[in-house]
Amino acid sequence: MNPWSDPRWGDALAHLPDYLGNHARVSLAALALGLLVSLPLALLARHRPALRGALLGFASIVQTVPGLALLALFYPLLLALAAVSARWLSFDFSAFGFLPAMLALALYSMLPVLRNTITGLQGIDPAILEAAQAVGMTPRQSLRMVEWPLALPVTMAGIRTAAVWVIGTATLSTPIGQTSLGNYIFAGLQTQNWVFVLFGCAASAVLALIVDQILALIETGARHRSRLRMAMGVIGILVLIAATLMPSLSRTRQSYVVGAKTFTEQYILAALLAQRLQAAGLPATTREGLGSSVIFNALASGDIDVYVDYSGTVWANQMRRIDLKPRAELLTDLKTTLAKQHVTLLGELGFENAYALVMPRARAETLNIRSIADLAARSGEMSIAGDYEIFSRPEWTTLAEAYGLRFRTQRQMQPDFMYAAVAAGEIDVIAGYTSDGLIAKYDLVVLGDPKHAIPPYDAMVLLAPKRENDTALRDALAPLLGGIDIATMREANLRASGSQSAADVARWLWKQIGGKDTAR
């Protein structure tokens, strides 16, 4: 079979203008901001050892912070600042996506620029500076006509390093709402779409190489006093900026933004919601791969319009409730609490995607383990794996305390990988999801929860405050409510873990629940 005939290549290419354009925009903006801050600071600190040490120390500390953590920290910080600004200054701005990504990446760019600029200026032969002074140059003239031209090649080397760092780290900006080439990587890892993963990595590497070579022209031009090379480099930068702006200028403004978290089911449901809106004549786009807390805050602040969340997740993580209630009572209480925040619970989709402890069926039968209570007696001998957030969620604390679970080892893994790991015996137990089709694929079994320590996780459609009275949106999504059962959702998840794209699976899912039309 020809690998290039895989339809996922066409799907990847279709997303390239949007993902690449957004990636280049945020990278170039962050690099420009980093230069605007770093270069004046480097000039100011070149003759001040204390300031120089403080600046380089701060920039070095920033580099020790993992890129994803730095990007994630900026979102709640800006969200709080936006709330204060709106309240006291009547000035509102979006803390979602571009702004936090640009600021975090600008900080990442500072160290190589600061270090190389200071090194270049300090490395100038003192005799040259004395000669400049001897011919009557002022300090400003000496800097402009002597020091800066001599230091420029070293500074450009730092700028090249910063550019590569920024472009690479920008792939991690997807979870805070910034569309980038990281969308390929996050979506590919979740759905086992290795075409997307390879495409995202390759596109990011090619972009970094192109920018590096353009900057290399300016560097070599400065080093060899070649105005032609410097002009070619500047023209290359201008062409790149123009190329990144054209897709955004030509793209129709999207009225509705559909959010999705970072696992397979969310990609399918986001595609399904977007297709329903488009079929109703409502322009829509998706923001995928968002973190659990980021996505709810983005909805509440109006940065996205609609997404699917789960009752137990919102109850425990957003409402900070640890008390457990029957399903109907919990949903009623949750709807009332959300309404106070002007977040609308439109309705449930009809299935539950609950956290559950999962084991290989054969091993569970051999050990006579049917429920979490049975597992508790053996948990000290066993290892468990879960997704990146389960063990820090209040639901896990409640579950562990209810049954006295104390596992020998506890690991965090990519969700799709942990199913294969437990099936192969590398892990004894996983914290899986009841609607995941991989449970049947690997012949796993969901352990019972006789104490009902795990809350219900009904899939529900949430609307942003500004869409509370949006009749067109409600009408477009109404046919989905109550229409998706657990068996259908499991099959959809299994299809998306194969060779089908989330959009194709969403179209299949619509037909399964009685849909008649094909979304545009």
Helicity, as a percent range: 55-70%
What is the CATH-assigned architecture of the largest domain? Orthogonal Bundle
Extended strand count = 10
The CATH class label of the largest domain is: Mainly Alpha
- State the helix count: 21
- In the predicted model, the low-confidence regions spanning at least 5 consecutive residues are none
Rg on CA atoms, Å: 27 Å
CATH topology category name of the largest domain: MetI-like fold
Give the full name of the CATH homologous superfamily of the largest domain.
MetI-like
Structural class: alpha/beta
Provide mean pLDDT, rounded. Answer: 86
> How much beta, percentage-wise?
5-15%
Describe the sheet with the most strands. 5 strands, mixed
Intertermini distance:
30 Å
> What number of domains?
3
- Biggest sheet: strands side by side, in what order? 7-6-8-5-9
User: Which of globular, elongated, flat, extended, rod-shaped describes the shape?
Assistant: elongated
Describe this structure in words.
The structure is a single chain. By secondary structure, this protein is α/β, with parallel strands linked by helices. It has three domains: 3-250, MetI-like fold (Orthogonal Bundle), CATH 1.10.3720.10; 256-354 and 456-512, D-Maltodextrin-Binding Protein, domain 2 (3-Layer(aba) Sandwich), CATH 3.40.190.10; 355-446, D-Maltodextrin-Binding Protein, domain 2 (3-Layer(aba) Sandwich), CATH 3.40.190. 61% of the residues lie in helices and 10% in strands. The protein contains 21 helices and ten strands. The protein has helices at residues 7-45, 49-64, 67-88, 98-122, 126-134, 139-169, 182-191, 194-223, 227-250, 264-279, 292-300, 311-318, 327-340, 361-366, 372-376, 394-403, 415-423, 438-441, 471-477, 486-496, 502-512; strands at 256-259, 284-287, 306-310, 344-352, 355-360, 383-386, 409-412, 429-433, 444-446, 458-463. The strands form three sheets. The protein has a five-stranded mixed sheet. Strand 6, helix 16 and strand 7 (409-412) form a beta-alpha-beta unit. Helix 1 (7-45) runs antiparallel to helix 6 (139-169) and helix 6 (139-169) runs antiparallel to helix 8. The protein is elongated. The model has no long low-confidence stretch (mean pLDDT 86).
